[in-house]
Amino acid sequence: MKLIADVDDVLNTTRAVRRRLDFERKVEREVIEECLLMAQQASVGSNKEDWRFVVVTELEVKSKIADLYRQVWEETVSNPLAAGEAATVARLSPSMRETEEDKQRQIKILEGVKYLVDNLEEVPGILFACSSAPTPRKPMGGSASGYYGSIFPFIWSFQLALRSRGLGSVLATAIAHKAAAAARVLNLPEGCHVVAMIPFAYTQGTDFIRGARGPLTEIVRWEKW
User: Fold this and answer.
1) Chain centroid to CA 5
2) Which residue pairs, CB below 8 angstroms and at least 24 apart, start in 179-184?
3) Cα 50 to Cα 72: distance, rounded to the nearest angstrom
4) CA 110 from chain center: how many Å?
5) Which of 70, 38, 46, 65 is CA-nearest to residue 154?
6) C-alpha angle with apex 40: 49 to 119, nearest 5 degrees?
7) CB atoms inside a 10 Å sphere around CB 81
8) Within the chain, where are the H helices?
9) CA-CA 20 to 30 A from 95: which of 12, 43, 52, 127?
């Protein structure tokens, strides 16, 4: 396994990988543990490791999670789009993108998500990121910033560590729609909640490039907006 040693290269080319995940190649346990140990160095609120993680590699468990994920797709994407639900159409429909390039990019993204939905149980490994801290009562303010800010740095560090070792991953937060059911499948302790899942695998090729992003001038101001 050849490491990508250039940190700028890793940061610039860590993409959401779905179609290019290699379903046939097993991911070694020691590689997963290396990535978890590196991710554990991420910042965490109040220095309290309220995070909990479950690595799933067995087909039986993956199949149960895949069934839940397909339900999420139907309930939050395919059915609302088919029904013309305004909020979902505005957020996800390629027809709402302004340029032809953006429309084609959104079509590609939806096709990639559907591919993962259809094949989730084939992915060699899935990391479930969970928290044992109390769930925030409000989505913004209060304890919410610390709750999510304590677990997503770990997730991103894990994804970067995977990329540096020739693996790809994708942050799949939609599983939170079925958090309670997923918790039962994973046999999580009482009070532990699924926040996100990260399917991962070696990639078919490692030639990933920078993602398409708008200019900084559209999103950045100095001193005040």
Assistant:
1) 23
2) 181/68, 182/65, 182/68, 182/128, 183/130
3) 26
4) 15
5) 38
6) 105
7) 16
8) 7-13, 29-39, 59-73, 79-83, 86-92, 100-119, 144-149, 152-164, 179-186
9) 12
Report how far residue 169's alpha carbon sits from residue 147's, in angstroms, rounded to the nearest whole number.
23
Q: Domains (ranges, CATH) in the chain?
A: 7-66+121-204 (3.40.109.10)
Backbone angles phi, psi at 189, to 5 degrees: -65, 155
Please check the confidence at residue 46 and state whether its pLDDT lies above 80. no
Chain-centroid distance of CA 215 in Å reads: 24
Most distant CA pair in the chain: distance in Å?
53
The model's pLDDT over 152-190, given as tens digits with 9 standing for 90+, comes to 999 999 999 999 999 999 999 999 999 999 999 999 999
Contacts 24+ apart (CB under 8 A), 29-35: 31/1, 31/165, 31/167, 32/125, 34/161, 34/165, 35/158, 35/161, 35/162, 35/165, 35/167
Who's near 16: CB < 8 A, 6+ residues apart?
112, 169, 170, 171
Length of the chain: 225
Angstrom distance (rounded) from CA 152 to CA 150: 6
Q: Which two tokens stand for residue 9?
A: 């290269």
Q: By the 8 A CB rule, do 196 and 154 touch?
A: no
In the β-sheet with 193-202, what is the strand arrangement from edge to edge? 51-56, 125-131, 193-202, 167-169
For the stretch 2-34, pLDDT in tens is 778 899 999 999 999 999 999 999 999 999 999
Q: Please state, in angstroms and rounded to a whole number, the distance separating the CA atoms of residues 6 and 203.
A: 18
